[in-house]
């Protein structure tokens, strides 16, 4: 498990909860600093105190780099799925 996490990288620190950032959902491939990553986990952090009072929750979004081979495989799989799909009304 520790070895898996070493390959992870902190991608984003946010005050938005996971349900508001669907583009950063677990398993999504995202572009970060010109490279592609797969989101692997969200970590909730302790609330942060605000200067004017109150507090806000924070989350870290972690991911692992996606290789060119993995992206190519996903593109081929998606293209095959599209080609196998019949247009509406065609049975």
Describe the model.
- Helix content is 24%, strand content 41%.
- The radius of gyration is 18 Å and the shape is elongated.
- A hairpin with a 5-residue loop joins strand 3 and strand 4 (55-65).
- It has one domain.
- It is an alpha+beta fold and 91 residues long.
- It has a 4-stranded antiparallel β-sheet.
- The model has no long low-confidence stretch (mean pLDDT 88).
- The chain is built from 2 helices and 4 strands, in the order αββββα.
- The longest helix has 17 residues, at 68-84.
Set out the fold topology:
Layout: H1 2-6, E1 8-14, E2 29-32, E3 35-49, E4 55-65, H2 68-84
Antiparallel strand pairs: 1-4, 2-3, 3-4
Strand content: 35-45%
The mean pLDDT is 88
SSE string, helices as H and strands as E: HEEEEH
How many E strands?
4
Total DSSP helices: 2
> Which spans of ≥5 residues are poorly predicted at pLDDT below 50?
none
Largest sheet: 4 strands, antiparallel
Strand order of the largest sheet: 1-4-3-2
Give me the secondary-structure category: alpha+beta
What is the helix content? Answer: 10-25%
Total separate domains: 1
Calculate the terminal CA-CA distance, rounded to whole Å. Answer: 47 Å
Rounded radius of gyration (Å)? 18 Å
* Morphology: elongated
